[in-house]
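Chapter review. Work through the record for DDE Tnp4 domain-containing protein before attempting the end-of-chapter questions.
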Amino acid sequence: MATRQLLIAAALREERLERRRNRRRLRNQLNISNIPDLEFVGNYRLSRELFEELCQDIVPLLPPKGRRHGIEPTLKILTALNFYARGSYQGSVGQNMDGPMAQQTVSRCLQEVTTALNAPHILRKHIRFPQNRNERNLIKQKFYDKYGLPAVVGCIDCSHVAIVRPSEHEERYFNRKHFHSINTQVICDSDLLITNVDASYGGATHDAYIWRECEIRNHLEGLQDETVYLLGDSGYALREHMMTPVDNAVENSPEGRYNYLQKRLRCTIERTFGVLKGRWRCLLAARELHYCPETAGKIILACCVLHNMCIRAGIEGPELTEEEHQSERTRQVPFETAASSTQALQAGRRARNSLIQMLERNR
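Structure tokens for DDE Tnp4 domain-containing protein:
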């Protein structure tokens, strides 16, 4: 009996070793130059040239190859890109014939690449809110040229990214749609570039609270002698620098015309989320990131870095189908009208009224 068990154990060990050798042989045969360009973009969402740029940025940040048969850094990056893009479980990614590997290996690759993409200097390079008047004026001019609304430096909103039930502080992540999520705040410009992102709050946190704690709010409030606006929905409190819709505005009135323009411009952030999640489908609310909240937040930031790289390079990603759009809308948590202090609200109303009057004069 003992001899039989030893033989079975030896056979299982040999089977595992053979699987490992087969995976290694297939990985060694991988030559990305042989992958057609369209197929490369379809699998990894980046062009070959942009992939090479990404490798230059983050290969030095990856752990060195520990042994002769270790995974090559470029294959680690391809594995992570494939996971971000497909939004499927690690096992299916690991079985992909582009570079087959065990699920544990995929998990390690994903963790290493995600950590590299979250390096502070990588985030600063690719996700950057305008820091000086010239940079802000460039964004303002693009919004004005496209929509006719002056002084806008960005659109803001939050979107929920589903995660598995966390083992700690579960109540912080359980949202009003009754699933666990990260409530991700994003600010974008008119080109759908993400200029600021915060993926550190659970799904139970209201949009207005995330904004109140955001460093960009303090930055905008500290600007002197410059008119700047962010555009948000009614989930945000009206402020001098935060323009929200006018409640119960009459159609074709000055307030109604402002609302029409404000909503039209605010579609920019909706399109940004659509492009981001269409390209990196691991973020779709219909899926779940099977990671702790901290790791899930890092994956979101990594996808935002890659999103901006693709936008700047002019690479189009796959669009969400109407069914996927509907599923995404169904899973998103509706905003709650933000409470507001009287003094700050009055200042916001004065700023909005001035904007409405200026729009009317320029009709």
